[in-house]
Amino acid sequence: MEKNQFVHLASVDEIPIGKMKHVEADGNEILVANVEGKFYAICDRCSHNNIPLSMGHLKDNIITCPMHGARFDTKTGKKLSDPVYPSLDTASLPSNLQRYMQQAGQLMSHVKTYDQKKFEVKVEGNSLKVKI
């Protein structure tokens, strides 16, 4: 596929206002959101832990990662907040699981969260297209 060309992703009526959809095009996983009748497209994989953002929660133009709660602006792709980790009472867990959880927490604390790639969107009739 030629770079910098618009490709069809979905029909406009497939994504109602306030909803989002996961689509794939030319090796890209894309989240398309309909915010107040305008469409926005960003990378659908959370930059923190590769979780599909389309499985998260969309409120207005803000998408929240379903795994760690990092938040992104669907209009710009900008990271609005880092992941939020719940505090867990691990005292009741077996010692080997406590060690695992501690090590996993230490490793995850070094994983950075970045802005999401944004895709240019245009509507032609009922066809929703993004520039790849």
Description:
The structure is a single chain. This protein has 132 residues and is mainly β. The chain has one domain (6-131): Rieske Iron-sulfur Protein (3-layer Sandwich), CATH 2.102.10. Helix content is 11%, strand content 37%. The protein is built from 1 helix and 11 strands; from the N terminus they run ββββββββαβββ. The model has no long low-confidence stretch (mean pLDDT 91).
Lay out the secondary structure:
Blueprint: E1 6-11, E2 20-25, E3 28-35, E4 38-43, E5 57-59, E6 62-64, E7 71-73, E8 79-81, H1 95-108, E9 118-119, E10 121-124, E11 127-131
Antiparallel strand pairs: 1-11, 2-3, 3-4, 4-9, 5-6, 6-7, 7-8, 10-11
Properties at a glance:
37% strand; Rieske Iron-sulfur Protein; mainly beta; four-stranded antiparallel sheet; 132 residues
| Top-tier CATH class | Mainly Beta
The helix content is: 10-25%
Number of E strands: 11
Oligomer: single chain
Fraction of residues in β-strands: 35-45%
- How many helices? The count is 1
Q: If classified by CATH, what would the architecture be?
A: 3-layer Sandwich
Main sheet? 4 strands, antiparallel
Mean pLDDT: 91
* Fourth-level CATH superfamily: Rieske [2Fe-2S] iron-sulphur domain
Q: Could you state the order of secondary-structure elements as H and E?
A: EEEEEEEEHEEE
CATH-defined fold name: Rieske Iron-sulfur Protein
What strand line-up does the widest sheet have? 2-3-4-9
> How many separate domains make up the residues?
1
The 3D shape can be described as: elongated
Poorly predicted sequence stretches spanning 5 or more consecutive residues: none
Measure the end-to-end span: 9 Å
From the alpha carbons, calculate the radius of gyration and give it in angstroms.
18 Å
Q: Give the structural class.
A: mainly beta
